[in-house]
Structures are given as C-alpha cells and as structure tokens.
Predict the structure.
Amino acid sequence: MNDYDKLIAYYRQCFNLIDCFHFNSEIASKVYSDYITPKNSKVIPITHAGIKDHRVKKSFDDKILRIGFIGNLTPYKGFPKLLQILDGIDNTKWDLSVWGCHVGKETHLPVFYKGKFNSATITSVYNSMDVLVVPSIWKETFSLVTLEALSYGVPVIVSNNVGAKDIVKLYDEKFVFNNFNELKSLLEELISSKALLKKFNNKLLEAEWCYSLDKHAQDIIDRIYID
C-alpha cells in the first residue's frame, strides 16, 4: 500500500507540471478531475484523417428497424445487454448487424455477425443500417466509431458512459440513454415510427461538419495555444 501511495504521489507531481489538459470529452474531464485538479483544461472532441464528410440523406422506408453494432462482444461494451433487450422485442420488427468480430447468426434471433470491414466496404456497412447503437457500460473517453457513423449520416444511440455523447446530444438528447430501460423504450419507439430517425438525419445534414482533421488542429491551436 505504501508503494501504491508513493506511485500516486509521483503521478500527481507529474500532472502538476502540465500547463493545460486536453480532454476529448466531458466524461474524460470528469474522471480526471475526480482525482486531480488541473491548472487549466479544455474539452475538444477528437477525430482522425480517415473521418471525412460522407453525410447523405437516408431512407428509413424498410418495415423493420435495421440496427448496427460495431465492436467486440464483451460485457463492458454492453453487447450482451443489447442482445438481452432485443430478445424482449418482437423479432419480426428489427434485425441487428454486428461488425468487428466473427461471422455467423444467432439461432433464434435476427442477429447477423458480419465479420470485419475495411475502407473498401465501409460505405456499404453504414448504408445498411438505420441506427448504430453504442451501449458501453464502462466509461469510454470518446468513441471514434460514433463520429464515423455520424460522418455517413447515420443516427447513433449511445449510453451516457460514452464520451461522444457530447456530439450526439447536439442532434437529439433522447439518443443518449441513462439506463437500459430507456434504451429499450427508444428502440421500441423507433420500431413503431421512423420520425425521430428522419429528424436526426435531417439535423445532421443541416449542421456544419466540424470534425475534419484540419478543423481539429485549428481548434487545438486556437483554444489551447492562443487562448
């Protein structure tokens, strides 16, 4: 325990040497601020060079709700809970495509495991879904897959543990859920009516796209180095 206390004290000394912290989300800022008191900090969303503006007006005319999930299937990513929720909803009204793991299908549910995708197939992946769900249970400082989906015009539902909720809530705060009962209610609402999805997509298209790498670099310069 004494060695642990010394290590914590050492890290705090290191952190005290930092003039400004760049947090990529309010969640990241809160987690750090629970343990240290930064002299100065800025919350600026992140991006990468591969995320570009591919936004399109989406059609939500299918009779079923086409749900997407991208990532691994571990509990902390929330996938088992998502599966449990969908198992309690009429499975003739939705299907779920899962990307990033193996290939296969659930025996009793319309859940299709599509394997991995790459830059050559990424457009077809996002075109194939009405909404992406990011149901993380652990605290994710950001979620680049959320930003990537938005860059293709796809509405995204995120848990309140996902840092990219800062961006999602700009389009519709209802798409940030606080518990899995809220997620189930929202999915059932989207199944019965696509109105919220159309509204989200329209608002996404009407807004300025602010998440290019050039814009991100300029934000860093303006808000950290010049402010």
Remarks:
- The chain has a mean pLDDT of 95.
